[in-house]
Write a structure and sequence with these properties.
single chain; alpha/beta; Metallo-beta-lactamase, Chain A; 7-stranded mixed β-sheet; 12 strands; globular
Length: 314
Protein backbone atom coordinates (compact mmCIF):
# COMPACT_ATOMS: atom_id res chain seq x y z
CA UNK A 1 0.00 0.00 0.00
CA UNK A 2 1.35 3.39 -0.93
CA UNK A 3 2.50 5.72 1.84
CA UNK A 4 0.39 8.85 2.35
CA UNK A 5 1.69 12.00 4.03
CA UNK A 6 0.02 15.23 5.04
CA UNK A 7 -1.96 17.39 2.64
CA UNK A 8 -1.62 21.16 2.61
CA UNK A 9 -3.82 24.23 2.06
CA UNK A 10 -1.82 26.88 0.19
CA UNK A 11 -3.09 30.46 -0.02
CA UNK A 12 -2.22 32.10 -3.31
CA UNK A 13 -2.94 35.62 -4.56
CA UNK A 14 -6.23 37.11 -5.70
CA UNK A 15 -8.58 34.82 -3.77
CA UNK A 16 -6.94 31.67 -5.14
CA UNK A 17 -6.11 28.66 -3.02
CA UNK A 18 -4.56 25.25 -3.67
CA UNK A 19 -5.04 21.92 -1.92
CA UNK A 20 -1.93 19.79 -2.38
CA UNK A 21 -1.87 16.10 -1.53
CA UNK A 22 1.30 14.50 -0.29
CA UNK A 23 3.91 14.03 -3.02
CA UNK A 24 1.27 13.99 -5.72
CA UNK A 25 1.70 10.34 -6.71
CA UNK A 26 -0.85 7.95 -8.18
CA UNK A 27 -4.34 9.15 -7.25
CA UNK A 28 -3.06 11.93 -4.98
CA UNK A 29 -4.35 14.82 -7.07
CA UNK A 30 -4.45 18.51 -6.27
CA UNK A 31 -7.51 20.74 -6.16
CA UNK A 32 -8.14 24.46 -5.96
CA UNK A 33 -10.52 27.08 -4.65
CA UNK A 34 -11.21 30.49 -6.20
CA UNK A 35 -13.11 32.79 -3.83
CA UNK A 36 -14.99 35.91 -4.87
CA UNK A 37 -17.52 38.06 -3.05
CA UNK A 38 -20.03 35.71 -1.46
CA UNK A 39 -19.24 32.65 -3.59
CA UNK A 40 -16.42 30.34 -4.60
CA UNK A 41 -15.48 27.93 -7.35
CA UNK A 42 -13.89 24.56 -6.52
CA UNK A 43 -11.44 23.11 -9.02
CA UNK A 44 -11.82 19.32 -8.81
CA UNK A 45 -12.81 16.95 -6.06
CA UNK A 46 -10.63 14.05 -4.91
CA UNK A 47 -10.38 10.29 -5.37
CA UNK A 48 -12.53 9.22 -2.43
CA UNK A 49 -14.96 10.71 0.05
CA UNK A 50 -12.58 10.72 3.01
CA UNK A 51 -10.01 12.80 1.16
CA UNK A 52 -12.64 15.15 -0.26
CA UNK A 53 -14.19 15.74 3.18
CA UNK A 54 -10.76 16.57 4.59
CA UNK A 55 -10.18 19.12 1.83
CA UNK A 56 -13.60 20.74 2.24
CA UNK A 57 -13.03 20.98 6.00
CA UNK A 58 -9.71 22.73 5.42
CA UNK A 59 -11.38 25.24 3.11
CA UNK A 60 -14.15 26.09 5.60
CA UNK A 61 -12.44 29.26 6.82
CA UNK A 62 -12.88 30.58 3.27
CA UNK A 63 -16.16 28.94 2.26
CA UNK A 64 -17.95 30.13 5.42
CA UNK A 65 -18.09 33.56 3.81
CA UNK A 66 -17.86 32.41 0.17
CA UNK A 67 -19.78 29.12 -0.23
CA UNK A 68 -18.94 26.80 -3.11
CA UNK A 69 -21.51 27.51 -5.81
CA UNK A 70 -19.55 26.11 -8.77
CA UNK A 71 -17.34 23.06 -9.28
CA UNK A 72 -15.15 22.45 -12.31
CA UNK A 73 -13.89 18.94 -13.03
CA UNK A 74 -10.76 19.37 -15.12
CA UNK A 75 -11.02 15.91 -16.72
CA UNK A 76 -12.51 12.47 -16.42
CA UNK A 77 -9.97 10.59 -14.28
CA UNK A 78 -11.59 9.58 -11.00
CA UNK A 79 -9.05 11.30 -8.78
CA UNK A 80 -10.45 14.60 -10.05
CA UNK A 81 -14.18 13.92 -9.65
CA UNK A 82 -15.10 10.88 -7.52
CA UNK A 83 -15.80 13.22 -4.57
CA UNK A 84 -18.48 15.17 -6.46
CA UNK A 85 -21.35 13.87 -4.35
CA UNK A 86 -20.11 15.99 -1.43
CA UNK A 87 -20.63 19.19 -3.45
CA UNK A 88 -23.59 18.15 -5.60
CA UNK A 89 -25.63 21.17 -4.54
CA UNK A 90 -23.22 23.32 -6.56
CA UNK A 91 -23.28 23.66 -10.35
CA UNK A 92 -20.77 21.11 -11.65
CA UNK A 93 -19.11 21.94 -14.97
CA UNK A 94 -16.90 19.93 -17.33
CA UNK A 95 -16.22 19.65 -21.03
CA UNK A 96 -18.33 17.33 -23.16
CA UNK A 97 -15.33 15.06 -23.74
CA UNK A 98 -14.63 14.80 -20.01
CA UNK A 99 -18.18 13.63 -19.38
CA UNK A 100 -17.65 10.80 -21.88
CA UNK A 101 -14.55 9.67 -19.95
CA UNK A 102 -16.40 9.87 -16.62
CA UNK A 103 -19.06 7.52 -17.89
CA UNK A 104 -16.47 4.99 -19.04
CA UNK A 105 -14.54 4.56 -15.75
CA UNK A 106 -16.49 4.87 -12.52
CA UNK A 107 -15.83 3.81 -8.90
CA UNK A 108 -17.17 0.29 -9.47
CA UNK A 109 -14.60 -0.22 -12.24
CA UNK A 110 -11.79 0.68 -9.82
CA UNK A 111 -13.18 -1.77 -7.27
CA UNK A 112 -13.11 -4.56 -9.88
CA UNK A 113 -9.56 -3.69 -10.92
CA UNK A 114 -8.35 -3.77 -7.32
CA UNK A 115 -9.96 -7.18 -6.79
CA UNK A 116 -8.44 -8.78 -9.89
CA UNK A 117 -5.91 -11.58 -9.38
CA UNK A 118 -3.77 -10.36 -12.27
CA UNK A 119 -0.58 -8.36 -12.71
CA UNK A 120 -2.73 -5.27 -13.30
CA UNK A 121 -4.73 -5.94 -10.14
CA UNK A 122 -1.64 -6.48 -8.01
CA UNK A 123 -0.04 -3.31 -9.35
CA UNK A 124 -3.29 -1.37 -8.82
CA UNK A 125 -3.46 -2.55 -5.20
CA UNK A 126 0.07 -1.27 -4.63
CA UNK A 127 -0.64 2.22 -5.98
CA UNK A 128 -4.35 2.63 -5.18
CA UNK A 129 -4.77 0.39 -2.13
CA UNK A 130 -5.03 3.32 0.30
CA UNK A 131 -8.15 4.72 -1.38
CA UNK A 132 -11.68 3.71 -0.40
CA UNK A 133 -14.10 3.52 -3.32
CA UNK A 134 -16.98 2.14 -1.23
CA UNK A 135 -20.02 4.34 -0.90
CA UNK A 136 -19.12 6.63 -3.78
CA UNK A 137 -22.17 7.63 -5.79
CA UNK A 138 -21.07 8.98 -9.18
CA UNK A 139 -22.30 12.56 -9.59
CA UNK A 140 -21.71 13.77 -13.12
CA UNK A 141 -21.47 17.38 -14.31
CA UNK A 142 -24.78 19.05 -15.05
CA UNK A 143 -23.32 21.79 -17.24
CA UNK A 144 -21.10 21.08 -20.22
CA UNK A 145 -19.07 23.35 -22.45
CA UNK A 146 -16.88 23.20 -25.55
CA UNK A 147 -13.54 24.96 -26.04
CA UNK A 148 -14.00 28.05 -23.82
CA UNK A 149 -16.24 29.31 -21.06
CA UNK A 150 -15.89 32.49 -18.98
CA UNK A 151 -17.43 32.66 -15.51
CA UNK A 152 -17.96 35.47 -13.01
CA UNK A 153 -17.36 34.11 -9.51
CA UNK A 154 -18.28 36.91 -7.15
CA UNK A 155 -16.53 39.49 -9.29
CA UNK A 156 -13.56 37.26 -10.13
CA UNK A 157 -13.14 36.42 -13.82
CA UNK A 158 -12.45 32.71 -14.32
CA UNK A 159 -11.73 31.28 -17.77
CA UNK A 160 -12.18 27.60 -18.62
CA UNK A 161 -10.23 26.33 -21.63
CA UNK A 162 -10.52 22.79 -22.95
CA UNK A 163 -7.04 22.05 -24.31
CA UNK A 164 -7.73 18.36 -24.98
CA UNK A 165 -7.65 15.76 -26.20
CA UNK A 166 -4.25 15.30 -24.59
CA UNK A 167 -3.89 13.61 -21.19
CA UNK A 168 -7.50 12.46 -21.61
CA UNK A 169 -10.26 13.06 -24.15
CA UNK A 170 -10.96 16.46 -22.58
CA UNK A 171 -8.61 18.53 -20.40
CA UNK A 172 -9.76 21.79 -18.85
CA UNK A 173 -7.35 24.41 -17.56
CA UNK A 174 -8.78 27.03 -15.20
CA UNK A 175 -7.26 30.48 -15.66
CA UNK A 176 -7.68 33.38 -13.23
CA UNK A 177 -6.20 36.29 -15.21
CA UNK A 178 -6.19 38.93 -12.46
CA UNK A 179 -4.39 36.57 -10.08
CA UNK A 180 -1.98 35.44 -12.83
CA UNK A 181 -2.77 31.91 -11.74
CA UNK A 182 -3.73 28.79 -13.69
CA UNK A 183 -4.93 25.40 -12.49
CA UNK A 184 -3.75 22.98 -15.16
CA UNK A 185 -5.35 19.69 -14.19
CA UNK A 186 -3.13 16.88 -15.40
CA UNK A 187 -1.62 18.84 -18.26
CA UNK A 188 1.16 19.45 -15.73
CA UNK A 189 2.61 16.82 -13.40
CA UNK A 190 5.10 18.61 -11.14
CA UNK A 191 7.94 16.22 -10.32
CA UNK A 192 6.34 13.11 -11.78
CA UNK A 193 5.94 11.47 -15.17
CA UNK A 194 3.13 12.67 -17.45
CA UNK A 195 0.81 9.90 -18.64
CA UNK A 196 -0.75 10.18 -22.08
CA UNK A 197 -3.91 8.10 -21.79
CA UNK A 198 -5.41 9.61 -24.93
CA UNK A 199 -3.20 11.97 -26.95
CA UNK A 200 -2.25 13.03 -29.52
CA UNK A 201 1.10 14.18 -28.24
CA UNK A 202 1.04 17.27 -30.45
CA UNK A 203 -2.11 18.49 -28.70
CA UNK A 204 -0.47 18.19 -25.31
CA UNK A 205 2.59 20.09 -26.54
CA UNK A 206 0.27 22.76 -27.92
CA UNK A 207 -1.51 22.89 -24.56
CA UNK A 208 1.80 23.60 -22.83
CA UNK A 209 2.41 26.44 -25.28
CA UNK A 210 -1.10 27.81 -24.75
CA UNK A 211 -0.67 27.85 -20.96
CA UNK A 212 2.72 29.52 -21.33
CA UNK A 213 1.05 32.19 -23.46
CA UNK A 214 -1.43 32.97 -20.69
CA UNK A 215 1.38 34.67 -18.79
CA UNK A 216 0.49 33.08 -15.46
CA UNK A 217 3.13 33.29 -12.74
CA UNK A 218 1.62 30.62 -10.50
CA UNK A 219 0.81 27.17 -11.84
CA UNK A 220 -1.17 24.68 -9.77
CA UNK A 221 -0.53 21.28 -11.39
CA UNK A 222 -2.76 18.25 -11.27
CA UNK A 223 -0.18 16.48 -9.11
CA UNK A 224 2.80 17.76 -7.16
CA UNK A 225 3.87 21.12 -5.75
CA UNK A 226 2.80 24.53 -7.01
CA UNK A 227 5.22 25.47 -9.74
CA UNK A 228 6.15 27.92 -12.49
CA UNK A 229 6.35 27.94 -16.28
CA UNK A 230 9.56 25.90 -16.00
CA UNK A 231 7.37 22.86 -15.35
CA UNK A 232 5.61 23.44 -18.66
CA UNK A 233 8.94 23.40 -20.46
CA UNK A 234 9.92 20.20 -18.67
CA UNK A 235 6.62 18.52 -19.56
CA UNK A 236 6.98 19.60 -23.16
CA UNK A 237 10.53 18.25 -23.34
CA UNK A 238 9.47 14.88 -21.93
CA UNK A 239 6.62 14.50 -24.40
CA UNK A 240 8.79 15.39 -27.39
CA UNK A 241 11.54 13.03 -26.22
CA UNK A 242 9.24 10.05 -25.72
CA UNK A 243 7.46 10.62 -29.03
CA UNK A 244 10.78 10.78 -30.90
CA UNK A 245 12.30 7.73 -29.19
CA UNK A 246 9.15 5.63 -29.58
CA UNK A 247 8.83 6.59 -33.25
CA UNK A 248 12.36 5.39 -33.97
CA UNK A 249 11.63 2.03 -32.35
CA UNK A 250 8.30 1.70 -34.14
CA UNK A 251 10.12 2.17 -37.44
CA UNK A 252 12.62 -0.50 -36.36
CA UNK A 253 9.81 -3.02 -35.85
CA UNK A 254 9.83 -3.21 -32.06
CA UNK A 255 6.58 -3.79 -30.23
CA UNK A 256 5.36 -1.05 -27.95
CA UNK A 257 6.33 -3.00 -24.84
CA UNK A 258 9.78 -3.79 -26.25
CA UNK A 259 10.24 -0.09 -26.97
CA UNK A 260 9.17 0.87 -23.44
CA UNK A 261 11.85 -1.42 -22.01
CA UNK A 262 14.44 -0.14 -24.47
CA UNK A 263 14.01 3.64 -24.18
CA UNK A 264 16.56 5.23 -21.81
CA UNK A 265 14.96 7.91 -19.68
CA UNK A 266 18.15 9.95 -19.42
CA UNK A 267 17.50 13.30 -17.75
CA UNK A 268 13.91 12.22 -17.02
CA UNK A 269 14.93 9.19 -14.97
CA UNK A 270 14.37 11.10 -11.74
CA UNK A 271 10.67 11.66 -12.39
CA UNK A 272 8.40 9.58 -10.18
CA UNK A 273 6.06 6.96 -11.70
CA UNK A 274 8.42 6.28 -14.61
CA UNK A 275 6.42 3.13 -15.45
CA UNK A 276 3.94 5.43 -17.20
CA UNK A 277 6.34 5.24 -20.12
CA UNK A 278 4.61 1.98 -21.10
CA UNK A 279 1.30 3.80 -21.61
CA UNK A 280 2.97 6.70 -23.37
CA UNK A 281 4.78 4.50 -25.86
CA UNK A 282 1.59 2.63 -26.66
CA UNK A 283 -0.14 5.96 -27.32
CA UNK A 284 2.64 6.93 -29.76
CA UNK A 285 2.24 3.58 -31.52
CA UNK A 286 -1.51 4.15 -31.89
CA UNK A 287 -0.80 7.54 -33.44
CA UNK A 288 1.62 5.98 -35.91
CA UNK A 289 -0.62 2.99 -36.64
CA UNK A 290 -4.33 3.87 -36.35
CA UNK A 291 -5.21 0.21 -36.90
CA UNK A 292 -3.45 -0.81 -33.69
CA UNK A 293 -6.12 -1.89 -31.22
CA UNK A 294 -6.35 0.32 -28.12
CA UNK A 295 -5.74 -1.34 -24.76
CA UNK A 296 -8.33 -1.10 -22.01
CA UNK A 297 -7.51 0.11 -18.52
CA UNK A 298 -6.53 -3.26 -17.01
CA UNK A 299 -4.29 -4.00 -20.01
CA UNK A 300 -2.53 -0.64 -19.66
CA UNK A 301 -1.98 -1.19 -15.96
CA UNK A 302 -0.63 -4.64 -16.81
CA UNK A 303 1.92 -3.05 -19.17
CA UNK A 304 3.00 -0.65 -16.44
CA UNK A 305 3.22 -3.49 -13.94
CA UNK A 306 5.55 -5.38 -16.25
CA UNK A 307 7.80 -2.34 -16.58
CA UNK A 308 7.77 -1.34 -12.89
CA UNK A 309 7.38 -4.62 -11.02
CA UNK A 310 8.01 -7.76 -13.10
CA UNK A 311 7.29 -9.88 -10.04
CA UNK A 312 3.61 -8.97 -10.42
CA UNK A 313 3.55 -11.18 -13.53
CA UNK A 314 4.24 -14.30 -11.44
Amino acid sequence: MACRTASQHIRLRGGCHAWLQAEGGWGMSNAGLIAGRGEALLVDTLYDLRLTRRMLKAFEAVTARAPITTVVNTHGNGDHWFGNQLVESAEIIASHASLTDMRQVQPADMTRLLAADTAAGRFARQIFGAFDFAGIRPVLPGRLYDRNLTLDIGGVCVRLIDVGPAHTAGDTVVHVPEARTVYTGDIVFSGSTPVVWHGPFDNWVAACDLITGLGAETIVPGHGPVTTRAALRRTREYLEYVHSEASVRHAAGMTAQEAAHDIPLGSFAGLAESERLAVNVHTVYRELDPELAPLDGPQLFGCMAELACPQFLL
